[in-house]
Amino acid sequence: MAMFFTNDSMRATLASYGLRTPPGVLIDGSFHFEDPCRLAANCILQHASIAAYSYIMHNVQLEHTEVGRYCSIARNVTCLGSTHPTTSLSTSPVFYDKTSFNWRFGDIPVFEPEATRKIRIGHDVWIGANAVVSPGVTIGQGAVIGANAVVTNDVDPYMIVAGVPARVVRSRFSDRLIQRILASNWTDYDIPAWLKSNSMPDTRNLSEKTFASVENAINSGVAPPIRPQAYRLFRRQQGDIAIEKI
C-alpha cells in the first residue's frame, strides 16, 4: 500500500471519525485507530494502530506498533518494528529490500529479509520524550518509560524504567494492588463519560482502599463500558484515501 500525508482537506472528515490530526502526518501502509484518539504534527505511522483515548505528540515514529487505550506518548519517541541484519555480510537493505534501488536498476533478486517483530504497547502506558523502543518489545499496562530511555527488553505492567538500556527504577504500586488493577479491566470503561457523570471515585494517590471504590463501581454497573468504533485509514490502489470500519 502506498504512503500518503494527511492534509487540510482531510482534517474535518477524520475528526468526524474520531481522529484528530494536523496536516503532514505520514501514513505508510494502513493505520488502524479507535474513536477517539489524536496525533500531533510530523508523525510517521508505518503499519501502526492506536486505541481509544490515546495520543502521540510531535515527531513520533511508530513502525509495526500497536498502542493500547489511554496511552500518552511524548514527542520524538521512536518505535522501530524492524532492524538491519548484523550477522550478514552487510547491513545494507540492498541485500534484502528489492525496493531499495529498483528505481535505478529495476527488480533484482534479494535475500529473504528478517521477520518484522511487532512492538506492543499496553493500555495506560506513558512514554517520555526521545525514548526509543526496540523491535519485538512488549510494554505492559500502566508502565512508565523515562525520557531518553532505550527499551530493549519487555517491561512488566506498572513498572517505571529509565536509562540506556532501560532498567527498572521501581514499581508504581504493590504487587497485590497491581494484580487487582489488572483484574479490574478498568481500561474497558469510558473514563471521560464516567468523570462527566460525577460518579467516579477519586483515584489520586491510589491505594488498595481507594481502589476498592473503583472495583465496586465497576462490579455494580456504575462505570460505563467503552464501546469504541475501530477504523482503518489507507490509500486504495486507485489512489484515493479511504476509511473503513473494522
TrEMBL record:
PROSITE patterns: HEXAPEP_TRANSFERASES. It holds the Pfam family Hexapep. This is 2,3,4,5-tetrahydropyridine-2,6-dicarboxylate N-acetyltransferase. It comes from Methylobacterium gregans. InterPro entries: Hexapep, Hexapep_transf_CS, Trans_hexapeptide_repeat, Trimer_LpxA-like_sf. SUPFAM superfamilies: Trimeric LpxA-like enzymes (SSF51161). Keywords: Acyltransferase, Repeat, Transferase. Belongs to the transferase hexapeptide repeat family. Coiled coil: none annotated. GO terms for molecular function: acyltransferase activity. Transmembrane segments: none annotated. It comes from the Bacteria. CDD domains: LbH_XAT.
